[in-house]
Amino acid sequence: MLQINVLIYEPNYLIKRAIMSIVAEINNNLIIEEVTNINSLKNTIADKYPDYLIINSLHLNIEIYNVKIILLEQDILLQNAVPQNVLICDRINISDTKDVIYNKLTNIFEKHDLKINSSKSDYLSAREVEIVALVAQGKTNQEIADLLFLSPHTIITHRKNITRKLGIKTVSGLTVYAILNNIISINN
Q: What CA–CA distance (Å, rounded) separates 27 from 184?
């Protein structure tokens, strides 16, 4: 089975985790690795020869060869200068919704004849979306139950269903999911 190696270099923790989550959702045969600094980026590229590098455009200040680059940008209209001989595969605006980023990455990886997961049938119900928003706001199961006039046991059941559908087990993961899907705003 075809495997694609994806290397991610993004200093912002939430953005990096969100992108890693989206890439992992696309296909199980994508091998995702993160690097934390420029030196480890150079070494990892030299040692592992990744197929793709997803990197914040602000940090692309070195020439990188033999890897397709997907740039993460804050504002596509204000594109940063790219060193010569760097192969830019595509650009992704990190302000886009999860679905837009997912579709753009899917289109890129499909060029490798990679079969894309079609498990998007497990969308969250309206009640589950409401619970995700409250969890992302830091509410406990009891507080959520009180706000929604439900029992804590019902909230726990909803949380289990959310975990099963999304594969996200942590509050921080649900928070990233809620931000990417415009369930909550980070400006609040």
A: 26
